[in-house]
Design brief:
The complex is a heterodimer.
Chain A (H helix, E strand, L loop, with lengths): L5 H19 L7 H10 L7 H19 L2 H12 L4 H33 L13 H35 L5 H26 L6 H23 L4 H10 L6 H9 L4 H24 L23 H15 L1 H22 L2 H9 L2 H9 L1 H12 L2 H4 L5 H5 L5 H30 L2 H30 L8 H4 L1 H27 L2 H10 L2 H13 L1
Helix pairs in contact in A: 1-6, 3-6, 5-6, 5-7, 5-8, 6-7, 7-10, 7-11, 8-13, 10-11, 12-19, 13-16, 13-19, 15-20, 15-23, 16-20, 16-22, 19-20, 20-22, 20-24, 22-23
Chain B lengths: L1 E8 L7 E8 L4 E5 L6 H8 L7 E6 L8 H7 E4 L11 H11 L4 H14 L15 H13 L5 E5 L7 H16 L3 E5 L3 H7 L2 E6 L2 E6 L1 H8 L4 H8 L3 H12 L1
Parallel strand pairs in B: 3-7, 3-8, 5-6, 6-7
Antiparallel strand pairs in B: 1-2, 1-4, 8-9
Helix pairs in contact in B: 3-4, 4-5, 8-9
Chain lengths: 530, 251
């Protein structure tokens, strides 16, 4: 069995390089500081295997550094104010970060495969003397040999180093990167197998469900770990569940010794992952590449709605057909909503709600509208960024900036419906239908308000500029600035929470209900009179 | 030599090519003509073994491209109609990649790259990202890539679109020379003036069938018209279509 096909390996490097180039192109990769950075980190066709992977490794180190930079800050702060048991936060973080490595790997695989397919990278060589098998193998190699493993190893190492530097967990230096590599090797063959099984493209719904489940799993584990009150409790938990990945790795770090059972479990996971990662692309008939035609058969846009709604539906369809953006939109919204949903299943929370006076309980559950508002500010720009390659088309159409804002607000609200309806159902069953309706109304009204405000702000920066509709061109500072400005109304809204204590709960509840009314009515009436 | 025997092919249930028989001989410039969707690109994709015929048999210098596409592709220099090229590579890097893909020995790679860089006036762009080049320059890089391994078969899909008159003129001369050297040349084009000047043999496709083949004169005679454009309109039964288009555009 040929473990690595050299020809496929070389092609995989080109695939990766091309995908990065195309995504960075709008940021002006050909000139300036970005060009310098790109040259520094972008794998070059002439790089050998070592140099190529080193570049990814360094990128991973930097990302890991950014991910764990808060650790020294928090540790210093807690030392200053004398808070005990900071170590619980660190362990919770280690568990979360290890689970996040699964998400990162899944995302990496999806993004690489989506890029290769959607950018048609393989079509550029299908007339050259390469067999289909080599090209398919190249696509699968792109994920792991094309830098994915090095990236995660680098990330794991810098996180491990920071944890070691500021805690007594010396084994973190080895076990975190080891765990990252293991999660990569475990997830990679599964996703490759699933994609091949579905003829090159995991159905968007399945892919989304996997993504959402992993996000929910991470948050649940994280919140659960935070509820531990002592180190002994954590140790007991890890001791009981050390046979499950990734607890064996964390167990070794926390116990500060190479405990044989945990080592056995860790090595078993690593070996199984390694073997599957070698066997699946080499032996199993890989089928990752699919025609670029739409995967949403029978799902098309008819112009039977008012103009603005039709324009909005166009965005809904584009986002649903764009597997990466779709996961970004729902991944972030679900991540923000999960703690609220989990709380509703908590018997203590339910007891409190049921024990409260009716209006007071309505007010408490409707505070979820804040989460909805923040989510909308964070995810609504995705509907602008899906225009990255299409804004030239947008400018050639008779549509004004205000209409773009309205149509994208509508699109975003339509896309939010599965989540708000889910929360409505859960709260209706667990609390009462009135509570369900109250949450549903406030969640949507605040969502619409936030989308409208945030999109207006974003568009005022990019409207009229060609090629400016991407995260890269907008710049991090400007993006953060828009987010802060968009969140100002929410700050004013916090007054309603205060009024909850000052006035009667009914007054606070009415303020909460009335606050988003003007913009919601405006958006909805524009839709009707359009 | 490329032979098609009763070839039916397509992408969906409705075939694009419907039982075509063709012999594309070496030593001639063969020009493939036909309206959009008539099957020109499909014909080239069949020769390259990118798609397989539903029925029928294809032989490229005696080899079946559907069973041994790699061997067939090694003999071919292909320029696709779209910009199927890696934007993230620099011009020299891309040509280097193509040269190695076609198995040119390492010691000859640089020499071949220099030759095509000079031939297609690309020397000054060799360090540029292909993504940063104009459409015309990208087409020139693709032409350079098709010529780099001195193939025995040249398949050029709309090679004259987007390139400047100097290169177009040179390309016509080169294609003539290559055909004299005994290479098999198949060019698809919509520009009838070029077909008229270039073609030793015209193959006119319409609705997936060969409706005429032969020299320009033979095709014109078959259509009983005075020129190639008229012959094209007659043989593809497009006269009414043209009237319809004019009427629609004039409102």
């Amino acid at each position: 069995m040929k473990i690595i096909d050299r020809e496929a390996y070389s092609l995989s490097l080109i695939f990766i390089r091309e995908a990065i180039y195309l995504s960075l192109r709008k940021a002006g990769i050909e000139k300036g500081f970005i060009a310098y950075l790109s040259n520094l980190f972008l794998p070059n066709i002439t790089d050998n295997v070592f140099v190529y992977n080193m570049k990814w490794f360094v990128s991973g180190l930097l990302s890991g550094l950014l991910m764990s930079l808060w650790i020294p800050l928090i540790i210093e702060a807690t030392r200053l104010i004398g808070v005990a048991l900071i170590v619980i936060f660190i362990v919770a973080y280690m568990i979360m970060v290890m689970l996040i490595s699964i998400l990162l790997t899944t995302d990496l695989i999806h993004q690489v495969l989506a890029s290769i397919n959607e950018l048609g990278l393989w079509r550029r060589i299908e007339y050259l003397p390469y067999s289909r098998e080599t090209i398919e193998k190249a696509a699968s190699y792109s994920v792991i040999i094309g830098g994915g493993l090095s990236l995660l190893l680098g990330m794991g190492l810098s996180i491990g180093l920071i944890i070691y530097t500021f805690t007594e967990y010396s084994l973190a230096i080895f076990m975190i990167p080891f765990g990252f590599a293991t999660s990569t090797l475990l997830i990679y063959p599964i996703i490759i197998y699933l994609n091949s099984k579905f003829g090159g493209r995991l159905p968007p719904l399945i892919s989304l469900v996997i993504h959402v489940l992993i996000v929910a799993l991470i948050l649940t584990a994280y919140l659960n770990t935070l509820t531990f009150s002592s180190i002994t409790e954590i140790e007991d938990f890890l001791n009981t569940y050390r046979f499950i990945f990734p607890f064996s790795f964390i167990h070794i770090i926390v116990m500060k010794n190479l405990e044989p059972y945990s080592i056995l479990f860790a090595f078993t996971y690593f070996t199984a992952g390694l073997l599957l990662s070698i066997i699946i692309p080499s032996k199993y008939g890989i089928k990752l590449l699919s025609p670029t035609s739409s995967s949403s058969k029978g799902f098309y846009l008819k112009r039977i709605f008012p103009r603005l709604l039709t324009i909005g539906f166009k965005d809904v369809l584009i986002l649903l057909r764009d597997s990466t953006r779709q996961k970004q939109f729902y991944g972030q919204t679900v991540a923000l909503s999960t703690p609220f949903i989990i709380t509703m299943f908590n018997s203590v929370f339910l007891e409190i709600i049921h024990g409260l006076e009716f209006v007071r309980s309505l007010f408490i559950v409707s505070i979820y509208s804040f989460v909805s508002y923040i989510s909308a500010v964070i995810v609504s720009p995705i509907l602008l960024f899906i225009e990255a390659d299409r804004n030239r088309i947008l400018y050639s159409l008779p549509i004004s900036m205000r209409e773009v804002v309205l149509s994208k607000t509508i699109a975003s609200t339509i896309l939010y419906q599965p989540i708000s309806i889910f929360i409505f159902i859960i709260s209706s069953i667990l609390i009462s239908p009135i509570h369900g309706l109250s949450i549903y109304y406030t969640a949507n009204a605040y969502w619409i308000t936030a989308c409208y405000l945030a999109l207006n702000l974003y568009l005022s920066y990019i409207w009229g500029k060609l090629g400016a509709w991407s995260e890269f061109s907008l710049g991090i500072l400007k993006r953060i600035g828009v987010m802060i400005v968009s969140l100002i109304p929410l700050g004013i809204l916090i007054l309603t929470v205060l009024s909850f204590y000052i006035f009667q709960p009914i007054t606070a509840y009415i303020i909460l209900l009335v606050f988003p009314v003007p913009l919601t009515i405006y958006v909805l009436t524009r839709l009707i009179i359009d | 030599m490329i032979i098609f025997q009763n070839v039916w092919a397509g992408y969906t249930d409705e075939p694009v090519l419907k039982g075509i028989n063709l012999v594309i001989e070496p030593g001639k410039v063969n020009v493939l003509l036909g309206p959009n969707g008539s099957g020109k690109t499909t014909t080239m994709r069949l020769i390259l073994g990118i798609i397989k015929p539903i029925v029928g048999d294809i032989r490229v210098n005696g080899i079946d491209p559907s069973t041994d596409p790699i061997k067939v592709r090694k003999m071919i220099g292909y320029v696709p109609e779209e910009d199927l090229i890696y934007y993230s590579l620099r011009v020299r890097e891309y040509l280097n990649f193509i040269a190695k893909t076609y198995g040119i020995p390492s010691r000859e790679v640089d020499e071949n790259i220099e030759r095509v860089l000079n031939a297609f006036l690309l020397k000054e762009y060799e360090r540029e990202f292909i993504g940063a080049l104009s459409h015309g320059l990208k087409r020139r890089v693709m032409l350079a890539a098709a010529f780099i391994h001195d193939p025995s078969i040249l398949l050029l899909d709309e090679p004259f679109i987007g390139i400047d008159p100097r290169i177009a003129r040179a390309l016509k001369i080169v294609l003539r020379e290559k055909s004299r050297e005994g290479k098999t040349i198949l060019v698809s084009t919509h520009i009838l003036e070029i077909a008229e000047v270039l073609a030793d043999r015209i193959i006119l496709l319409y609705q997936g069938k060969v409706v005429a083949e032969g020299s320009v004169r033979e095709v014109v005679e078959k259509a009983k018209t005075s020129g190639l454009e008229e012959a094209f309109i007659t043989l593809t039964m497009s006269r009414e279509k043209v009237v319809e288009i004019v009427k629609a555009l004039m409102g």
